[in-house]
Amino acid sequence: MAEFKTVRGMRDFLTEEAKIMKYVEDRARRVAELYGYKEIITPILESYELLAAKAGDEVRLRMYAFDDLGGRKVALRPEFTPSVARLVATTLRNEPRPFRLFCLGSLYRYDEPQRGRFREFWQCNYELMGSSKPEADAEILMLTDSLMKAAGLKKYTFRVGHVGVLKGIMTEEHLHDKVQTQVLQLMDRKQHDEALGLVESSGASKNCVAVIKDLMKLKGRTVFETVQKIRNCVRGYEKAVGAGENLYEILELFLKSGRKVDIAVDAGFARGLEYYTGMIVEVTVPELEVALGGGGRYDKLIELFGGEPTPAVGIAHGMDRIMLAMQSQNAQLETKEEKRVMVIPVEEKLRKEALKISGMLRKADMPVEVEVMGRKVTKALEDADRRGMSYAIIVGLRELREGAVVIRDLTKREQKTVKIGKIIETIKD
């Protein structure tokens, strides 16, 4: 008989991993609530055209795309932003701005599996749509910092750049949009020489090539000093200077909000998706080679889907990657200690009473398992101990005649007879 395994790039989450993943999910939802983001749920399957419109070659080539039985070309979502943009361009088009939208779920890309990178992965996604103000970008940075802290991470770094700096230079040099996209994609893959070669062969001036070459080397953790160097470097390119000023304002708002965060400003930083127009950001930890989250400003995407011009900024966080970072940094889960109970009938004819007592406890919001294997009391108590139960309720005929049960404290190894009406009170006390 064949032994079935998970499909390559997919995996199972066993109990402990599932527990950490749910913990991250709960923290992500709580952060959304604290910042006023409303949850939406979008389909896993979307039209290929929607997802491919501004995804970039890197993502397009790795989509799970196929023709459905109706002959329509569809794909499993590789990211959330196009689905959210579709909603804002259509169903939500007449709703008041700004939109603060949050979604959470699984995504799919045909990447080469490695630590922190799978073909099925989970993200929580935050989008702030309708504002072009720098405080909207700063809010996305603040929200990200809040999530990292909520997950219990101690060491993480923000890598921040601004697509408008490089795009501003290339636009003023009259480089075609397609060339600009290819240059940024090469830079995202760290192919800097190839990117410079493309700029040069596309008719840019020697000054332009020299400026971009200098920008590629310009990075540092002295935030405002580095941004000032960027502004000095692009002097003469009005749009690029404006982008540098915008970045300065965003970071000033973020850091003056009282945040103490490790930030690296990187002028040569680019991201693979085509739709970014402004500030971009990634969050990394020293223990992982892949980013925990990334995003930025995209002011043209909603127009692309037929909506009104709508400036927007957003970020997606890899929940499974945050989980890996938590494990690497030994982050403690701040969980409420619950008293878990096992109900054990002494003999088969007492099963109804055992189920009745378990129902009573669940109504009192108490986690309960009933012994369903027909084990003897001694073996059932051993099993309850192994499962980490706090108490065992032993349902015996003699005690039932007096309207009582035996409650065994599995931590203290003590037991006493208690009236059925007093079980909840006894365990809670």
Give a brief rundown of this model.
The chain is of the alpha+beta class and about 425 residues long.
Structure notes:
This protein has helices at residues 15-34, 48-52, 57-60, 81-89, 134-150, 163-172, 177-188, 192-201, 206-217, 223-233, 238-255, 301-304, 319-328, 351-363, 377-386, 397-401, 423-428; strands at 38-39, 45-47, 65-67, 73-76, 99-108, 120-129, 157-162, 219-220, 262-266, 279-284, 293-297, 312-318, 341-345, 368-370, 391-395, 404-409, 414-419. Helix 14 links the parallel strand 13 and strand 14 (368-370). The chain is built from 17 helices and 17 strands. The protein has 2 domains: 15-328, BirA Bifunctional Protein, domain 2 (2-Layer Sandwich); 341-428, Rossmann fold (3-Layer(aba) Sandwich). By secondary structure, the chain is of the alpha+beta class. The strands form 3 sheets. Strands 1-5-6-12-11-10-7-9-8 form a 9-stranded mixed sheet, with helices on both faces. A 5-stranded mixed sheet has the order 14-13-15-16-17, with helices on both faces. Helix 1 packs antiparallel against helix 5 (134-150).
